[in-house]
Amino acid sequence: MGVNKTEEMVLNIGPQHPSTHGVLRLKVQTDGEIVTSVTPVIGYLHRCFEKHCENITYQQVIPFVDRCDYIASMNNDFGYVLAVEKLLGIEVPEKVEYIRVIMAEMNRIASHLLALGTFGLDVGAFTPFLYMFRDRERILDLFELTCGARLLYNYMWVGGLSHDIPVGFVEKTYEFLDYFEPQIDEYNNILTFNKIFIERTADVGILPVDVAINFGVTGPNLRGSGLRWDLRKDETYSIYDRFDFNVPVGQGIKGSVGDSWDRYWVRVEEMRECVKIIRQALDMMPRDGDVKAAVPKRIRPPQGAIYSRSETPRGELGFYILSDGKPKPFRLKMRSPAFTALSVLSEISQGWMISDVLAILGSLDIVLGEIDR
Amino acid sequence: MIFEDIKKSLDQQFPDLVLVAGEDPFHFITIALNKWSRLARFLHNNKDLKFDSLHCITGIDNGPENCLEVRYNLFSMTHRHWLEVRIELDRTDPRLPSVEQIWRTADWLERETYDMYGIIFEGHRDLRRILLEDDWEGWPLRKDYITPEFYREMPVPKDKI
Amino acid sequence: MTITWLIEWVNDSWLGFLGLPGAFILAVIIAGLAIFGLVAVHAIVAVYVERKVAAFMQDRIGPMGQGPGLHAGKWGLLQTVADALKLLVKEDIIPAAADRKLFVLAPFILFLGAFIAFVALPFSESLVLADFNVGLFYILAVSSFGVIGLILAGWASNNKWSLYGAMRSAAQIISYEIPAAISLIAVILLVGSLNMQAITSAQSGTVWGILPNWFVFQNPFTFMAFFIYFIAGIAETNRTPFDIPEAESELVAGFHTEYSGMRWAFFFLSEYANMFIVCGVAVVVFLGGWQSPIPGLMTGRIWGLFWFMGKVVFLVLIMMWIRWTFPRLRVDQLMNVSWKVLLPLAFFNLFGAGIWSLWLD
Questions:
Q1: Which of A19, A25, A38, A123 to mutate to test the interface with C (most CBs of C within 10 A)?
Q2: If we measure between CA atoms, which residue out of C181, C288, C276, C289 comes closest to residue C225?
Q3: Mean pLDDT value across residues B71-94
Q4: pTM (2 decimals)?
Q5: Confidence of residue A1 (pLDDT cuts 50, 70, 90)
Q6: Is the domain defined by B3-155 classed in CATH 3.40.50.300?
Q7: pLDDT for C22-57, tens place per residue?
Q8: Residue B21 pLDDT > 80, yes or no?
Q9: Which of C59, C327, C332 sits opposite A197 (nearest CB)?
Q10: Residue B126: pLDDT band by 50, 70, 90 thresholds?
């Protein structure tokens, strides 16, 4: 009789797998159900974004930016046009600022709905996912009304917008907000405070705040770890300083601070804050004005380099733009929040079970389009 | 802390470290390559500077005749100040010390820079290609990169630009 | 209508020349076909209902058809029929690395476990194929036989996901058999028989004058036992929140990842057959079997069948409701529920039921 020996098994989760949120491969070393190490393998969606950008004009970059984080295109556009406007030194009209904020916050809600829904799906709850998609659909309808596209908008231009908001948009948005706010309680009933859901997520995948900062984790994931840090408040851009809203942070209500449940909870609470911002913005928005007044005819930024960041639903999206004075960027680097969020996965998922790794992955809310670019 | 103060404290700690300090339109410092490792540790650990967040690593190719460059955007979550560090590298043998063990986020960011520019980060524990296949040839974001005709006997589609 | 009756009937008819052995074989074939028909029809209807229930719960409309021809019929009524036809003609793929013999065998073993359990289910007063004196024990025994099929499927596929699924389901089914069986023993103790008809008959009349004298209402311990059994039953059928063996977001499809076409359909069939068995046992043991909820009203052979099927469908619908409401447990939490919650409760129940029956005497 030989000696019985157990050995670790390598499990390849992905690239084709139901819960990798795109095309991601996780090389997971497992000892039975326990995971000893996780190595994410990325690049399956690499589309040479940065190389393309060196060959097209600043305005033409916007559709490419859309396609990076295809869940929150408005926020990505916003981040990019802010960077270029900073480089050019243009001021945009009041109305444009308001519309941008409204669109960005609506897209934030839509993105969070998708994040929460798929997170639910990752832990096995199917129904909340469809509830959230039903409501996300309403936001997409509003976007469609505005710019004709439902996913990739190309709506925010450097210095302005592609279209003014259509007639009836404001009323429809108010209507949506009135409908949407009570829905958040419904999500809480069906998923957030479900006993099994709490069992599955509370105390799972705890991300301490210092680790989060060191790994460059930002956005809701960082706030879930208990740090009150939101660029909209702490490094105000656009007109976010005019609105009154809170920055929800993880408090460890159901487990410890920084667990998967906290990351989830921060997103739920953030949706309420988004609703607040949109309401204020709709109230304060000037009703007339030309949204293309400040759109430059030719975009030729002066020589120089700029790093500009903004808060997207996934965290801090940074653009490093190096201009050599020509109409095309000399170098455009996108610092993607999901990229850094994914890099922390191997750190926080060791020692958990396979099911937990997928729950943690879901709680980090990654979009592979943005990671691979 | 404003940029002048940061520069002053750096000058105290490391005389003749900063080669260039300027505005472009943001403040930056260009430093000599061999100082980077010590400087990084200092920036991260010093109580007054405390750059605890490495935001972005950007590789830049300044053209086939010029140097390669790496730019680090550092931010302090505690003191809320920025610093951009630029390091110029030799094109033929681009090497610089890794900061992966100081800011863990640099792990993937450096791998990406290596992937795109072939810049070797010495001391990085796992320097592999990240976005491209391991057997990809060439450094795609260099200005003199020529797209290969074939990859593993598959024709590479060409964009008309 | 037992199998004995069937044999006699064949023997007495013009087929009498077959003799007793021939009549026996023929009778078994007839009975088998009847059960298979029931299982298949139940699966087709239940899949349709499940899809519709899920859709309505999720604010969708589910399968819908637009008219005649190869569409799915009105309200998608023919959707599952179309699906079944598609599965029948689908290419049968056996992975190159699979263990061919076991791979082919596994779905049938699994199905067999669910299939032969139907023999002992009393559908009505007179409609039970084999009226054993150990009916309940028999059902428990053969329905855990299916787990061998699961393990074989997982092993023979030579796929890591399948292996994980198989190991998980083996652990799960074995763990949940125990609380399920012990909660049933509480009832057996009160009845004093394992015969399914005897258990049903023990539930006639009323309790407290209003409620039917079903075991679920008879005393607090059997009331508890019903819930323990039902929860354990959901776990045995691998349904959410206990669906970790096929947890699609983790294990892709668990033990049947590599299966396609008709073999996959057999997995599906046995899942729904298992649901029927679990609910059928729950109905017989706790909900009065084929007895009418209002004693004396609408009784008789046909009504008995109606009541039995009605109660089973009701429990199946509850299973669906649970499935589309809850997230999934993790594997260790699942074991915790079984060993640390259900099992002690079941033992406590058994003890209580014993005391109760002594006190009644």
A1: A123
A2: C181
A3: 84
A4: 0.86
A5: low
A6: no
A7: 777 877 888 888 888 888 888 888 888 888 888 888
A8: no
A9: C327
A10: confident
Torsion angle, alpha carbons of A269, A273, A276, A281, to 10 = -150
CA A10 – CA C254 distance, rounded (Å): 17
Q: State the first-to-last Cα distance of chain B, in angstroms, to the nearest integer.
A: 45
**Residue A18, preceding bond cis, omega within 30 degrees?**
no
Q: What is the pLDDT of residues A119-132, one digit of tens each?
A: 888 888 888 888 99
The per-residue DSSP string of B63-127 comes to -TTS-EEEEEEEE-TTT--EEEEEEEE-SSS-EEE--TTTSTTHHHHHHHHHHHH--EEET-TT-
Residue type, B92: T
Cβ of A177: how many Cβ atoms within 10 Å?
A: 17
CB crowding A3-13: b at 16 or more within 10 Å, else e: eeeeeeeebeb
What's residue C216's pLDDT?
77
Closest in C164, C249, C329 to A121, CB measured: C249
Rounded Cα–Cα distance for residues A342 and B109 (Å): 12
Which residues in chain C are contacts of A194 at CB distance < 8 A?
A: 326-327
In this complex, do A11 and C325 lie within 8 Å of one another by their Cβ atoms? no
Task: In whole angstroms, give the CA distance from residue C194 to residue C180.
Answer: 15
| B55 vs A215, A318, A330: nearest CB | A318
If you count residue pairs, one on A and one on C, with CB atoms under 8 Å apart, how many are there?
75
Which residues in chain A touch residue C257, judged by CB atoms under 8 angstroms apart? none
Hunting for tokens 């909340």 — which residue is that? Answer: A128
Domains of chain C: which residue ranges? 1-89, 93-360
